[in-house]
Amino acid sequence: MNYYESDLQDTTTHNNYIEKIFYFQQIDKVILYEQNMKLLRIYNGVTMKNEKQDIQCPGVILAIEFLPDKNAICVSLSDRSILFYDAGSQNYKIVRKIHVPSTQKCLCYVKRKKVLFSAGTDGTIYAWNMEKIFSNDFVEDEAIREKEKKEFEYKLYITENTPWFTGDIILCVIDLPNINFLATGSYDKLIRLWDLRGNSTESS
After folding, report:
1. Is the CB of residue 22 less than 8 Å from the CB of residue 32?
2. Alpha-carbon distance 119 to 184, whole Å?
């Protein structure tokens, strides 16, 4: 087969290398971020036109994910936070924010479990309970958030029997829905499989 470059052109000015690019079918958006930058660039999935609705984040972007049942764009940042932006609002307002204990370079949402997995530089995998985070009981007050950050009360939102530890920097996380496993790739040149079928999770 012969392939040709499309007539559609990206006319946006980029300030650094393109780190990652994603397409989220549920909202028909292409979203990308540049290396060491704080801006999410958002494009129409049909025209590839930048809609001038980019998201300016408070920290350098490390990873993004989409939560279809919450209609939220999830972003992991260098300031050790994970932000959730409302994909249905015109200006993508922040609807939730959680503090994390270490830099989280990977995000993976498992919808059937309603869990967001994150992992990163300390070789730890966290499983965030989205039902708790998106419930009415979630802490919204900024002063309480600061207390939460200092006292590590983020554990209120982590699922039972987690976090899990691999022992080295985790570079990628992916869901394997057909076998109900989570796979992680780490700096130690190992792929680990995590069993999501029961209440307890084991690596193999």
Report:
1. yes
2. 9
Q: Report the candidate in 38, 26, 34, 37 with the shortest Cα–Cα distance to residue 65.
A: 26
Using one digit for the tens of pLDDT, what is the confidence trace for 167-187? 889 999 999 999 999 999 999
State the pLDDT at residue 154.
Answer: 73
Identify whether the C-beta of residue 183 lies closer than 8 Å to the C-beta of residue 167: no
Please enumerate in sequence order all residues whose Cβ is within 8 A of that of 85, keeping only pairs 6 or more positions apart, or say none. 55, 72, 73, 74, 75, 92, 93, 94, 95
pLDDT band at 199 (very low <50, low <70, confident <90, very high): very low
Q: What is the per-residue pLDDT for 202?
A: 47
Reduce the secondary structure of 137-159 to three states and give it as a string. CCCCCHHHHHHHHHHCHHHHHEC
**What is the residue extent of each domain of the chain?**
18-195
Contacts of 46 (CB under 8 A, 6+ apart): 28
pTM: 0.88
Sign of the CA dihedral with 24 first, then 33, 81, and 127 last: positive
Instruction: Give the span between the Cα atoms of 28 and 26, in whole angstroms.
Output: 6
* Residue 146 pLDDT greater than 70, yes or no: no
- The CATH topology of domain 18-195 is Methylamine Dehydrogenase; Chain H (2.130.10)
Q: What are phi and psi of 156, to 5 degrees?
A: -60, -25
Q: Is the pLDDT at 149 greater than 80, yes or no?
A: no
Strand 81-86: give its sheet, edge to edge. 61-67, 72-77, 81-86, 94-99
